[in-house]
Amino acid sequence: EYKSLHTNTGFPAILNDRILKAAHGEEVDKIPIWIMRQAGRYLEEFRNLRVENEFFRICTTPRLACEVTLLPINLLPLDAAIIFSDILVIPQTMGMEVIMEKGKGPVFTHPLQTPEDINLLKIPDISTDYEPYLDAIFLTRHSLLGKVPLIGFCGGPFTLFTYMIEGQGSTVFTKSRRWIYQYPQETHRLLDMLTNILCDFLLAQICSGAQMLQIFESHAGILGPDEFEEFLLSYNRKIASFLKEKAKINPGLEAPLIIFCKDAGYALESICQTEFDIIQIDWTVPIPRARELANRYGKVLQGNLDPAALYASGDFIRQKATKMVETFGKEKYICNLGHGIYPDTDPEKLRVYLETVHSL
Ligand code: 1CP
């Protein structure tokens, strides 16, 4: 049984809880909105901080991770904070080296080449290997002073698997797709390992102060429906069941769960047939169909403006956002983009989007 570093008690009272209300399907005064990658490079304040600080050093220094998490909260009318970290900290704690290359993104120095390489991975120890990430959550939850809820996150097992095999981002993911067909058993073994780690990591995030959780399956779009079920959704189901089971035993550990399977609109109905509370969709998914399925299975929706739409004029953003919100409906809805905000977005355009949604 996991002994938590922190005990999920003694935090400041919450002042703005509209995102938690929407997550529970309750009525809200305004539509809650937060933005994936809201603490990132589109903010000058973040870029300045990055000059002096290596990316993963920010993630492992609670004081810095907290400062970066709070940046957008102090600048823009957001209804939630998301802890500053990265999905690739998990493979790092399993012994894989990841370097942030300027202009390229994260790169693994030694990606897994054959199934034998799985034997070189270590099973991390939650209370020591994850201490900085959990302390960052604990410190940030306190430092938020109850302004808005704090969201924790992780990469989904399948998406982490693809990075560990490819060594970096890709458009075709031929190495990962080859693995699932050439080495199905070993692929399952690795996905199983990752799933167990993520269950413990997410539970520890709740204990440390995370009030909602999002799983990023950013590479869900490379699978067909059968493989999606076998190599992706079944593992995420396990994570959701694990967390819901823990919350049943200890109601203090209840936290709404968000799943984002990017480019997997093809599997939306099966995603709705899980224990996740909130389904994040990208901009390729027709909203009316998403709403119909969400209602059928009692889910809340999150999304989905194309982040590129923030390059348009303020007037266009207002029109587009208004139409989008009217199509989603104002209940059982959390507003966001359809993917992370792009680094060269003008923060004032984001402000237009946020203010429009709050005014509706
Ligand atoms: O140089 C820099 O400053 C790096 C830019 C950056 C940032 C700001 C990276 C590198 N990661 C992050 C932070 C981050 N990553 C957050 C922080 C909280 C917030 O949203 O504000 C989160 C939630 C992530 C999640 C993440 N990392 C995802 C899932 C979301 C998505 O975009 O699909 C993925 C795929 C990553 C990997 C990653 N980390 C960074 C980059 C550039 C990438 C993508 C690499 C690739 O596939 O090519």
TrEMBL record:
One GO term describing the cellular component: cytosol
Enzyme class name: lyase
Subcellular locations according to the entry: Cytoplasm, Cytosol
Pathway the protein takes part in: Porphyrin-containing compound metabolism; protoporphyrin-IX biosynthesis; coproporphyrinogen-III from 5-aminolevulinate: step 4/4
InterPro entries, sorted: UROD/MetE-like_sf (IPR038071), Uroporphyrinogen_deCO2ase_HemE (IPR006361), Uroporphyrinogen_deCOase (IPR000257)
Keywords assigned by UniProt, alphabetized: Cytoplasm, Decarboxylase, Lyase, Porphyrin biosynthesis
Reactions catalysed: uroporphyrinogen I + 4 H(+) = coproporphyrinogen I + 4 CO2; uroporphyrinogen III + 4 H(+) = coproporphyrinogen III + 4 CO2
Described function: Catalyzes the sequential decarboxylation of the four acetate side chains of uroporphyrinogen to form coproporphyrinogen and participates in the fifth step in the heme biosynthetic pathway. Isomer I or isomer III of uroporphyrinogen may serve as substrate, but only coproporphyrinogen III can ultimately be converted to heme. In vitro also decarboxylates pentacarboxylate porphyrinogen I.
The protein, known as: Uroporphyrinogen decarboxylase
Organism lineage string: Eukaryota, Sar, Alveolata, Ciliophora, Postciliodesmatophora
Similarity remark: Belongs to the uroporphyrinogen decarboxylase family.
Chain coiled-coil ranges: none
Native species: Blepharisma stoltei
GO MF annotations in UniProt: uroporphyrinogen decarboxylase activity
EC annotation from Swiss-Prot or TrEMBL: 4.1.1.37
GO biological process, one term: heme biosynthetic process
Limits of the Uroporphyrinogen decarboxylase (URO-D) domain: 32-41, 151-167
Pfam families membership: URO-D
Subunit structure as annotated in this protein's UniProt entry: Homodimer.
